[in-house]
Amino acid sequence: MAVFDTPEEAFGVLRPVCVQLTKTQTVENVERLQAQLRAVSDSALQELQQYVLFPLRFTLKTPAPKRERLVQSVVECLTFVLSSTCVKEQELLRELFSELSACLYSPGSQKPAAVSEELKLAVIRGLSTLMHSAYGDIILAFYEPSILPRLGFAVSLLLDLAEREKSKQIKIAALKCLQVLLFQCDCQDHPRSLDELEQKQLGDLFACFLPGISMALTRVITGDFKQGHGIVTSSLKIFYETVSFIMADEQLERIPQVQPKPAVEHRVAELVVHREAKWVKNTSDKLTLLIKKIIECVSVHPHWKVRLALIELVEALLLKCSQSLVGSAGPLLKALVGLVNDESPEVQAQCNRVLRRFADQKVVVGNRAFADILSENLHSLATSLPRLMNSQDDQGKFSTLSELLGYLKLLGPKVNFVLNSAAHLQRLSKALVQVLELDVTDIKIVEARRWHSDQLSASPETAAGQPWSQMQKRYFRFFTDERLFLLLQQVCRLLGFYGDLYLLVDHFMELYHESVVYRKQAAMILNELVAGAAGLEVENLHEKHIKTSPDELREIVTSILEEYTSQENWHLITCIESEEAGEELTVKQSGLRAITSGAHTCQVPSFPAFSKPSATICSMNGNIWQICIQLEGIGRFACALGKDFRLLLMSALYPVLEKAGDQTLLISQAATSAMMDICRACGYDSLRHLINQNSDYLVNGISLNLRHLSLHPHTPKVLEVMLWNSDASLLPLVADVVQDVLTTLDQFYDKRATSFVSVLHALLAALEEQSDPPKGGERDTGPDVEPPLPVQVQIAADVMERCIHLLSDKHLKIRLKVLDVLDLCVVVLQSHKNQLLPLAHRAWPPLVHRLTNDDPLAVLRAFKVLQTLGGKCGDFLRSRFCKDVLPKLAGSLVTQAPVSARAGPVYSHTLAFKLQLAVLQGLGPLCERLDLGEGDLNRVADACLIYLSAKQPVKLQEAARRVFLHLMKVDPDSTWFLLNELYCPEQFTPPHPSLHPVQLRGTTGQGNPYAANVLRLLQELQ
Amino acid sequence: MAASPLPPPDPRFVLRGTQSAVHALHFFGGAKGQGQPLLLSGSLSGLVHIWSLQTRRAVATLDGHRGQCVTWLHSLPQGHQLLSQGRDLKLCLWDLAEGRNAVVDSMRLESMGFCRSTVLARGQRHWMLAMPGRGSDEVQILEMPSKTSVCTLKPEADAKPGMPMCLELWQAESSPRPLLLAGYEDGSVALWDVSERKVCSRVACHTEPVMGFDFDSQKARGVSGSAEKALAVWSLDEQQALQVCKTHELTNPGIADVKIRPDRKILATAGWDHRVRVFHWRTMKPLAVLSFHSATVHCVAFAANGLLAAGSGDQRISIWSLYPISSDSSTPLSGHVEDTEDGQELLMHRAEARTSRKK
């Protein structure tokens, strides 16, 4: 590129322009020189360096007032020369340094001259280039005490520019140049690392600038956020590089106590600092103030790169100046841990990296002073925590808790120092308990009901992935930000992981006992402590920390579990209606209406919409949450113990299943999800599998609790849930407990019939499912002994026996359920007539009562039972039905018909209508099933015919049509005849004239009210 | 008792799954430091179930008596060996070490009676076995494991005590001579000196056959139950003469089994009336009536740690924890028991124990 490679050629070209410039110092001449310089090769220029520099320096030194523009172009040209050449002479370096600095000198002022921004920039670049062009040895020699005044001037100049200039470009350049001057430039031109002596020499020299540099930079750093993050990050970098260099423990420990006599003139010697202990102490104190100021400002800086730089600052200072800056360690650590949950992932990662590095190098744990400081910090944080949690907003709480989390991470196992102080544990726990207080004013929680009592819907597969992803949404009194909860969870987990678990569990157990106000929070914390102790989702920075042993953990979990599921903590009042209060039935019936509207959950109308929820509702809400949290805890414990939890199933599964059958939606959900956690932890592939495999434990609990039903009123519920969610393989076990159930039922007919009938229903449904009865116990039977009945037949017979009594119960709901159970009993007993018939005989009178004198719903179900019975013991039933039931039903149909024919649209809401409908709906299939004789069929037909009239309500017509459809199947001919007698749509022409014409009674007139329905039915017959 | 405001005591837990009446129970292992003992049960259907008391589940089933009722189970002091006696007239020796469950030896019994056998350890690997003999009133003594017949103990011709109903071999601390206690069909209990093959003493305790007894060799006192409505407590003096100390009237007749707890503080009886009764051994004060079963209780057994097991015709085995045995055996546990006036106080102690554990 260069045109002139040899010095000779170059000289020939450059000489005229240099001479010209020396003579006439104008911008044009400088530019001319610069233009020529571009054509000269670097090597040639190096030879001519001094020659070319002369006119330029001459121009600068000429005392006459100069135009800024000229100075600027000279400096730029000079910079160009320096950038292409090396400065090899000490003297030249010093002079150029002074001459360049002087360009910005304003006489009589500490401030830089008021010159154009371009000139400032040019000078800064010039200085920077100069320092880069200096030869290796030259540069070190440059930094000797005698240079202090000139260096000091340049440094303060640059600091001033960095601080006060408006132009961002100048600020950045000034800071960059400052780095160069302070030997912090990270460009490739200074690869050399300094040896100890050189470090000390530079350290001594720079020490006198430390106050100026640190204060000015602090002002820059803590300046306006708007000044741009680049300036702040560079300033931070220079700050910590400078401080960590001058205050490096490594250097300081080698400083002799007595200052050697410096070999410089007195004026300069005064500037030289001796870094002895007192100076260090003084400086450190002052720096601590600055560092605090910086941290305070920067830790909340909106730009993440600035916060990242802060982490570097903390790292550098704590690693290099742990002794000299021990006073700053507290704020520095605080700054670090405060960023552990930073919103920026980069900052978070960097922070965790540093924390891990500290842990690895035992910066904290291995350093008494730091550990003490950290404990002290945690102490004071714990002290102010309750107040902060009370007063701060969500954001403030977030940073406070982040800080807490950071301390815990950093302290690791040493956290016990703090926990062992009762006062501090008290504070810490108080704060946690306080901030975790739930908002229990939501009415919906109490109201949300579970209507499908049978299957627990969910298998572990459907909720695969994160075990706790579908945690129930909670509302807290003192915060709304969900991240806060996650943070608190982490805090508790870390406490559980590093802390003395026995101590912590004891402490929070005490709080749990102390007051109902703390109970929910204490349980939440206990749950997380255990999860943390097992290392679930805990990030461990301390590799050597030994976790709580599985045996200890199991012991602890067992004791918490015992507490959670004890009578007084497990059986809390969660709803107003209860069997004991006798209100259940009324509320349930209002609920029935809600089902028809299709909703799974509904507003129970017994609660008016309070503007303020009453205390009772709040306390019930609280109780619901209490139970949910404890259930969640059981799930957590299972996850924490894994397969070890299997041993606890004998005590844990029963209470969980009990809650799975709870009416409150939230509780039932929490229990189901706890069971899924258990499935996952213990290796069961479904709830059914879990229940099947552990039914022996359940049956044990059920049978023992049935002995004290008043103490354990939910026992039937557990059996019911178990039955709905298990399969036939349990039959032998169930048979064992059924006797207990029936015996208990016999004692409590009046009080607890509802729950028992539900159990019987579940039981019979399970028996019905079982098609293949197991053969058992036949070995001992001799030839003369009848083989024992299959287990399920025995059970069904025993149950049917009870149904006979309960068929006349005063509560409709029970009667309905009993009819369902009865129906199932008949199915199970169908092939054992010897058992079935006597029972059916005894069940007959109350059943007749249901058919003829009960609510329409009961009538319908009674019909269904009759149908089932009809299939199994038709002969037995036929005569009795025709004798006891049919006359009454037919009679009532006939007498009611004129009423319904006349009635208006409101009639369909009356009981009478529903009864008519039920009887009509029930009769058809039954007639078919019972295979009634002609006389009885006619009776049915007669009673139903009237309902084929178009005057009847449409629904009754439909039902009547259906009766005839059934009758047609039994006896098509007579039905045809009967219908034609009512309405005869066509004339019958005899096939042969010798036959008489047939005339049926049915009129063909247009006014026949039966026409439409008869026509439709006759069509069916063809 | 009936006036007690406290609920009746419940079993700690119940073992289900034998699917047949339970006729024999025996705790296996569980000595100090060995962890939880295992419970063995023998059923009417001929199976032996091995139950883990930790998981409360059967861990293994032994089928060695061809569907005939298992009447007696006993583990040998050395090794994991188990003896089982069945109504199939077989005595099986099982090896249960390291999860094995195989019959390693078996013997034929000569008698079809109800009498359970008994063993006495004689040195490291040797033990003596007493079992009902060929003649209906005989007891046969064998040296084991060689199965060498030592002798046959036959009552004198004029005694006519009937069949032996229950046996217990033992040995006084002062003398190495093996002794045998035998309960007979006529309600008497006899002490045999095995070496001399003669009856040392005999005493009529009951008017009905002796169904079961247990003997406290330290106090030289025994207790027996029979088909009648009373328990008999008898003792043995230095001259090895048996004498009835007292009888204890029961509300219902029929005791199928009697066991004294290893710490000799309490005893339990298995009742035909479906109940287990607990007495203070020294005073014979009734402490509790445990009602849970719905059929005859056939057998009771105590574990070294104090657990009580009862097996019944209702196919269930109930496990009860009435008093924890204090770990320091020198402290008189009877401190509790002796102060109690009746079972009610026992229950109160239990309730207190439960609440204090919670705190």
Automatic annotation (TrEMBL), chain A:
Any Pfam family the entry gives: TTI1
Domain TTI1 C-terminal TPR, residue spans: 769-976
Ranges for domain TTI1 N-terminal TPR: 11-343
Highest taxon, organism lineage: Eukaryota
SUPFAM superfamilies assigned to the protein according to its UniProt record, in alphabetical order: ARM repeat
Name of the protein in question: TELO2 interacting protein 1
Taxonomic classification: Eukaryota, Metazoa, Chordata, Craniata, Vertebrata
Gene behind this protein: TTI1
From TrEMBL, chain B:
WD repeat boundaries on the chain: 203-244, 290-322
Keyword presence, Cytoplasm: no
Gene symbol of the encoding locus: GNB1L
Family annotation (InterPro entries): WD40/YVTN_repeat-like_dom_sf, WD40_repeat_dom_sf, WD40_rpt
Protein name per Swiss-Prot or TrEMBL: G protein subunit beta 1 like
Keywords for the protein's UniProt record, in alphabetical order: Repeat, WD repeat
TM segment ranges: none
Tagged with keyword Chaperone: no
SUPFAM superfamilies registered for this protein in UniProt: WD40 repeat-like
